[in-house]
Amino acid sequence: AVDQRMRQATVNLFADMGVQPATLQSPLVAATASTDTAAPTSTITSPTVGASVPAASRVTITGTAGDSGGGVVGAVEVSVDGGATWHPANGRANWSYAWVPTETGTATLMSRAVDDTGNIQGTPSTRTVTVTQMVCPCSAWPESATPTVASDGDAAVVNVGVKFRTDKGGHITGIRFYKGSGNTGTHVGALWTSDGTLLATAEFINETATGWQQANFTTPVPITANTVYVASYRAPNGRYAGDSGYFVNSGVDTGPIHLLKDGESGGNGVYAYGGTTVQFPNSSYRGSNYWVDIVFQPSP
């Protein structure tokens, strides 16, 4: 069916261009040229001015935009190279843009908005940040990262995990996971090849009631660059952290560590029920993130 809103929008656009149709089909109505000549504005709100961000890690640039000329913001663009190139942001009044810096040093971030009449922001919003080398040993998630569902209602014995690869060869020194208040019992972390060969295990000791937990392997495990591995832990009483759909549209890229997008190497967010010891998690459901992580030390 014909969308009458789009047809009317075309009439409105022609009016802004000084063009009027000889006749109009019902229910379209004649339009007059917009009197909005005021450009919209945009502002970067994050990262803060002078902030330090690690190279090769995903940085979310956020901001706001508005139009005081009677129109509405039509789009926002972001530049991460001082205005040499521009990229569309997601959202309008509140917008965001995902950036993965590749070079260390000072980076100039800019934003500009355009309204529904075509007025474009004259002077972009600008701020500088410092891109630093990522320090390792490193993990995909910072301590500040938290799940939406910290403790799922499923109370069965289960092994949950994540598929990952690294840009560089090196060693996995430990396994991390986020613990919700209901996730009790003795937890055991495990590292596997993509086909289920067990490489190492480590029991979590001195756990806190909630938050990130870490178990270190007795001997760090060597891994090969650009090779898929699986990190997991055994939850004897279930109640694991789990956010459905997390890996459906994108993975997580933090420095040399990449938690895979669902479908990149089969499903991601993997699990296996039962067993009295660790089990290889090879089932997946809706790209769920079970908030499992690694500790990685790249080779020199």
From TrEMBL:
It comes from the Bacteria. Residues 145-292 form the DUF4082 domain. InterPro entries: DUF4082, Ig_E-set. Pfam families: Big_7, DUF4082. This is DUF4082 domain-containing protein. It comes from Azohydromonas caseinilytica.
